[in-house]
Amino acid sequence: MDNMKAPPGVSRAGSFVPLTLLCFLAIFLLSCQHATSPQTETGIEGQIYEVGSPAVPEGWTPPPLGGVRTIIVSDSSQVPVEEFATNAFGAFRIELHPGTYFLLVRDTTRPQGQNGPFTVEANLLSTVKVYHDNGLR
Question: In terms of CATH, what superfamily is 43-133?
């Protein structure tokens, strides 16, 4: 390799530095682009709360509804488009396309109540509270 001669006016060592610099610059620019434009989920996250207890004092905050629950997602025309399960504490997160939605907690032992409408905006994860009426009065 030492036998190879560079063309007149060009140093072999001199071409290595600009090429290395160019590679580092490309890596730096790609990492900056990733840092400045993070991918954001589009959808909703939230918690189911239990309401409907007898003799509820004014200003009462309903307790979270524990246990895995099924939630049905309906579009603005109230046509079901998705169904998913919460975690064991009644919390959830789901990706949805931008639009308007209603949520319904499906529970075979209690009355059902629809929540919403909720608006989902592009690149935004909105926090919602879903209320489930336990039927107690």
Answer: Carboxypeptidase-like, regulatory domain (2.60.40.1120)
